[in-house]
Amino acid sequence: MTTSTTPRTQNPTPLWALGDYHAVATELIAPLGPRVVEATGIGPGQHVLDVAAGTGNAALPAARTGADVVASDITQALLDIGQRAADAQGLDLDWRADDAQALPYDDAEFDAAISCVGVMFAPRHQDAADELARVVRPGGRIGLISWTPEGFIGRMFATMKPYAPAPPPGAQPPPLWGDEAHVRGLLGDGVTDVVAVRETVSIDRFASGAEFRDFFKATYGPTIMVYRSIADDPSRVAELDAALAALGDSALVDGRMEWEYLLLTCRRA
């Protein structure tokens, strides 16, 4: 099933259409989607919304449980890739181009809402959190996986920050969603039964920090955007090249990296 709607807030840049995010999702962090589905208790017959679904890292495993899944993302190009993957697997999902900060769904429409390193990139955190809670029925579940500020991806964003363009007014750093206190504050008393744990996903894809850097330069939208913003300054490109390679090297232990994330589940009050 394919249904497309126009986002209420247009994406100012095709950030997540840059590179090949599907390669990141499938080659590096594939275990995260099934993890958030399992932790949230997704199962047959539930009406589930995957917010900022990308190419379906969590939406596809949710559909495999027998749930009725809507995969929502602001970037149509990612949804198109996800739809093709779903078709190849014989899965029936509803793919919709929506803004996580202004979801076009009724109050209490879903039994559960999930997001796997997705909603954390909505610039206005409170708006996105309010929408997550609004569309879930009382007693329904919310499950989120977000990169922590202290973990590897959080440190990668900190490394890129001095080279990045200024964020839009009101935007907050994505890794704040990996801080339990921040997310509890966003969701407030609209949720109960909050459980938050820090876990890691093991990455054995890279033999060196330079190999990690080059993979992200080719595939990961935020990294590509930062490099494009300094492309006319070779000295800054070289500085960032060295900093990202050093970061990667610092995280490699016996050919493996451990990328930390926060898994947070709760129930709509």
From TrEMBL:
The answer, when asked if Metal-binding is one of the entry's keywords, is: no
Q: Name a single GO biological process.
A: methylation
Every Methyltransferase domain range? 48-140
Alphabetized Gene3D superfamilies for the sequence = Vaccinia Virus protein VP39
User: Which InterPro entries does the annotation name?
Assistant: Erg6_SMT_methyltransf, Methyltransf_25, SAM-dependent_MTases_sf
Superkingdom of this entry's organism? Bacteria
- UniProt key word Methyltransferase: yes
Any single GO molecular-function term of the entry would be: methyltransferase activity
Q: PANTHER family in the record, alphabetically? A: GERANYL DIPHOSPHATE 2-C-METHYLTRANSFERASE, ZGC:194242
Name the UniProt record assigns to this protein: Class I SAM-dependent methyltransferase
Q: Which UniProt keywords apply?
A: Methyltransferase, Transferase
Q: Which SUPFAM superfamilies match?
A: S-adenosyl-L-methionine-dependent methyltransferases
